[in-house]
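Side project, low priority. Logging it here so it doesn't get lost.
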Amino acid sequence: MSKRTGLVVASCGVAVLLAAAPARAIDPWEAPPFPDDSSATLNTLGHGGEQIHDLDQGGTATNDVDWVTVPTLARHSYEVRLNNTSVQFDWGACTDCAQFERVSAAGAILTDDVSTVNEGGIESYDRSVRWIATANTTNEYVRITGHQDATETSSSVYTLRYRDTTYSIPRWNHAGTQTTVVLVTNLTQNAVNVMVHFYGATGSLLATASYSLPPNALNVLSTASIPTLAGQSGHIHIAHTAGYGGLSGKAVALEPSTGFTFDTAMVPVSH
C-alpha cells in the first residue's frame, strides 16, 4: 500500500501545493518504482540482507500488505526471520493477527511461519519462515499482512533478515579403507527436516540422505550405509529447516587399519 502526504511550500508569500509525495521515511519500498503490495515488487532480499518495513495503513481502513522477493538455489535451505516488532503476529490459532508467510506469485502459501521460542501455548513474536528449496527460483516471496483488528501506523515496524542456512563439509571419503561418518545435532526445540547431499569432486550429486531430527537429538550417518557412495569421495551440503545456526556437526573419516580419525567441521554460509 502506498502512503502519500501533501506538502505545502511558501514561495514569495504564495502557498504552492505540490503533488503528493510518497512517505519514505521508514519503508522506502512502499512507493513507485518499488511498490511492495504485490508480486510485482522489485524489492529483493539476498543472503545476509536486512530490511526495516512498516505496516502503516496511511489513515485508511485497509491493511498494509508487504511482499519481498526471496531468490533460492536448488538443494539449499533458507530462513527469513521477522523480529524487532510490537505487532502481534500469528501465534498459531490467531487468524486475525498479522501474518508472515512464504508465498508463490499467485499468493498461495508455500510455508507458514513458526515461532523461534515457545513456552507452553505462548509463542514469541520473533517469527521465522524456513524451507528447503527444490529449484533455482526468482519468483517466490515472503508476504507480511497487517493485523485485522488493529490500526497500524508508521510506528508498526518490523525487521526482516534473510539467510542461506545451508551447511557445507568440504571433504568426505568412502574409498580404499576409509569410511566417513556424518554427525549432526539439532540445537532447536522443534523437530527439523535434514537433507544430506553427497557430491563428487566434480560437483555431481551422488546421493541424498533425508531424515527428521527431534529436538536436541543427534543423528549419525555412515557412508557405508549408502551403496552408491562406495569407492567415491567428495564434499557435502546439508539443507534443513532448523534456521540459521540451528544445527551443529562434523564428518569423521575413519581409518580402521591405523585407528586414525580425521574430523572435518560442518560450517554455515558466512554473512
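Brief comment: The chain is about 0% helix and 50% strand.
Revisit when time allows.
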